[in-house]
């Protein structure tokens, strides 16, 4: 091959690799914001496909999807919403996977404020605790289940500051408007370590498992990027990112 033709051949090969690249709109549970941003960037680099991300409460996403929102994939904060979506014909049940199992944590921005057993919940010297809306956010539901199991619901309920989703709940605690917050471990952990503050990882026997499922929605069926992303979420590279934020499988 001549020196003149070689650059043309390289350009042709690059074009061929990305000629069939597609784009998919992805509704992502707020707790999965940080890991999904990293995964989406690596996904585009590795495959040429693009994932356009929207973050929010699973319950709100369900309402939007039921009303025709053009999302191609839902990464939910639970497993019941994707199951419901499949049964209602809003998505393809055969594509449903568990991409992560979440971990609930009681967190404070203040170092040393939360003890290793969560006994701070029994104290009366704090005014507010941030908890996500249990009707919309699975992490909020898990928090209320934990309080019920601990027999602390009546004591804590008057001091709850309710977030619309786990993202807003984290902001309440991170800003100091609430000294305590039940948030996702993924929001306060990175590379296997707590970023700041103090925390108590809530034992799994105090609430139902936070199994987070993904499903291809009707607008995503036949979309090459949607199929590729669902496969990519199960890759070693994606799973390493997911685990670094405190999730299991």
Automatic annotation (TrEMBL):
Pfam families: SBP_bac_11
Database matches in InterPro entries: AvModA-like_subst-bd, ModA, ModA/WtpA
Binding site for molybdate: 58, 166
GO molecular function, one term: metal ion binding
GO BP of this protein: molybdate ion transport
Family: Belongs to the bacterial solute-binding protein ModA family.
Subunit annotation: The complex is composed of two ATP-binding proteins (ModC), two transmembrane proteins (ModB) and a solute-binding protein (ModA).
NCBIfam families: modA
Protein name: Molybdate transport system substrate-binding protein
Organism field: Paenacidovorax caeni
